[in-house]
Description:
By secondary structure, the chain is α+β, with helices and mostly antiparallel strands. The strands form 11 sheets. An 8-stranded antiparallel β-sheet has the order 7-8-9-10-17-14-13-12, with no helix packed on it. α10 packs parallel to α12.
Amino acid sequence: MYxxxxxxSALQPLLHDVxxxxxxxxxxxxxxxxxxxxxxxxxFYGHDRxxxxxxxxxxxxxxxxPIGVQPLGPDRVRFTSVHRYQGDPTDDPxxxxxxxxxxxxxxxxxxxxxxxxxxxxxxxxxxxxDLADIADVKRGRPTPTVPCTAxxxxxxxxxxxxxxxxxxxxxxxxGAPEVTDGPEGGxxxxxxxxxxxxxxxxxxxxxxxxxxxxxxxxxxxxRSPAPWAEPRMTGDPRLVALVRRGxxxxxxxxxxxxxxxxxxxxxxxxQFIAAGCxxxxxxxxxxxxxxxxxxxxxxxxxxxxxxxxxxxxxxxxHDVFREEAPGRILHxxxxxxxxxxxxxxxxxxxxxxxxxxxxxxSLLVDAWHWGLPGDEVDALLPYAERAMEWVLETCAGxxxxxxxxxxxxxxxxxxxxxxxxxxxxDATGRRIEPPLALCEVQGYAYQAATGLAELLAARGRHxxxxxLRTWADALRKSFADAFWLSARHGPAPRYVAIAIxxxxxxxxxxxxxxGQLLSTGIxxxxxxxxxxxxxxxxxxxxxxxxxSRSSALPGFNPLSYHNGSVWTHDTAIAIQGLSAAGRHExxxxxxxxxxxxxxxxxxxxxxxxxxDSRTPGAPAPLAYxxxxxxxxxxxxxxxxxxxxxxxxxxxxxxRTLFVxxxxxxxxxxxxxxxLRLAGRDLQIHADGKxxxxxxxxxxGWSFSTGGS
Length: 708
């Protein structure tokens, strides 16, 4: 039996050298040699449950020697190793071992004798698990090995606890293995495999299981194809590669909501993008919404599915533990309640997010502009109005009239995208505790109100629209009065505070949060200019992307979670805002950095990466060591960049697609076929000389290269 090393307690496992295969809700995390030894986050997983943590292959009692790893797609990878023999007349390996590991299925093992001598060998596969919850794995909490028993007439192994179940079976040539079970795990053994020169032998090992019992209505693997168009592109090869890899990863991160209710949409299932692998492979309000927003240029079906999955779980009552309230949008959905360490205990259905609710409203508005069918818009509109009422009521109950979060004890302390324990620091590096009104959240609220007002006006509900516009105007003025801070040094005389504490006390120190304001409309032209200057400065632009905190401030750490690292999606949102504001030079500088960084990550963008400065001869950027990869909004960043470079701004009220390609220092050369507006495929060609050609505009729509 293979002995696995003991995990150090209370340390989050690092993922920088982990090979990840994903087919949501399943994934496999492997070291580069393919041998699972029960260390760190290694294992086969399904529905937030580790099904196996040890899968160790031995030939004649020895581990084969690894020589290569080859990704075969987002859900599978090939590990190749060799088994060498003393006394061979050649130094060349003569027995090749190949293992193709597939998320949600298991692995295929093949032995090939490429030598000139017949080999007789014994193959063993040591198997064990702890059936740990993903929350325990993430916090580095040691969990005991679960005893296994023989199953299925003695040709398989089974592990079970009250919370989880795993089963493993093998079928190969010339037959089923010998099975041994026990309290520390089990083995499959093929005691005598004879391979003549040129012959091969193989076996298929299946791994199944998950949470027990499976939560009713919990999202699962989709049965239908990806709900977006597959564009064909020519242009910057980095962008082409990033889009291709991003869409592959998004396809692997798809989940489907089994609860369709009475809604009719041609019987189509509602799909959404899980937040990220391995820690957040589930429905996350904020993350799933941003992924869907970024993907709108490829169609509205993903947005529709995301909206419905969240609408069905919209808050209906006041619940302190869940932090639920009527109209509030879900933060995250898990199969079971979980302890996350450091006093953090979250329910399976948790609403502790201040930003998901206004973002839900904006997703519906954006989907409307991109041509979501009118009956779908009308069916979802009541949920958006309830979400907006939560925003208005929460602001009305705040002493300063802002959208502020007041976390419960034991819940998430910070409740926007920067949600780590030390996510908010001032210019001196001091941690700032909630309640807090974050700057970007006020922008989300403003954008939700003005966007919903436009949608309601288009539906003839002018009184409701006026009410929202009046409220939004007041928020914009209050924001301008409270959030701007004078800068003692830097590229602009002022910057936007990351947050406002009690008593209108601003949190000092430039941070990336202000970049997400540019596309919300809450800033005037002068404000956009000042923010653009800060985003372009070396304090925030690392050369690889946008730092989350200024490098000139105490507390800056290039490998911190939220105080100096570069977040892929955050940079992309800033690029979209800069492009919309006409700040093309600053937008293109960040775009170039992001695309160059992507080339160092094999175009699979991590959740976040290091914020070290890019200098001549500098090494490649480093992924944050525990970052999700693939990650939903990081993968969707590719389409967000494409949209920003082309300058795509549909307006459903005017039935016009505005196309304003990024001029940057020189006009853009890019051709894309397969964008989608109102269900019709578009072709857009920016010729690199300033001319733009658009084909496929839907009936009743027009396009314009002028302002909106």
